Amino acid sequence: MNNPTPTLGNSAQHPATPAHLAFKINTPRRVPLADLLKQQTEARGLEPLPLESGLLLKRIAQGGHSGQFLADAFISAYRTDKPFMHSLGELGRLDSEGFRLFHEILHIRHVSGWNDDDLYHIEQQVKAIIAGGK
Question: N vs C: which end of the chain shows fewer Cβ within 10 Å?
């Protein structure tokens, strides 16, 4: 039996490359940061909100369920090795301001201009408030 060796079509640029595998490399282009952030926001389907740190600290200092919930959420979002030990069902117990703050906490590293030193300073204030309430 004589089985011919199968052959694949070749691309014009590289005769040894099958046509369906040939690709063209485009030159890199510069994309403004504003455009990248817009694309990122559209891909997520929501607008990351900047953290209202003064309001967050005020709500944590007021205590109660929402204060502890928001404090734990911030610590967990900032310190990625600290698990968030609440059910997300507890979001229903927050008022609209608390819910918005939770949303802002989730995006602390997704807003333009975030700064780790600022987040560290907020974390230290959150810890001080929680320690003072015990």
Answer: N
pLDDT in tens, 65-111: 999 999 999 999 999 899 999 999 999 999 999 999 999 999 999 88
Domain boundaries, the chain: 53-132
Choose among 89, 122, 109: nearest CA to 49: 109
DSSP string over the chain: ---PPP---B-SS-TTSBGGG---PPPP----HHHHHHHHHHHHTSPPPPP-HHHHHHHHHH-HHHHHHHHHHHHHHHSTTS---S-GGGGGGS-HHHHHHHHHHHTTTTSTT--HHHHHHHHHHHHHHHHHT-
pTM of the complete model:
0.67
Asked if residues 49 and 107 have their Cβ atoms less than 8 Å apart, the reply is: yes
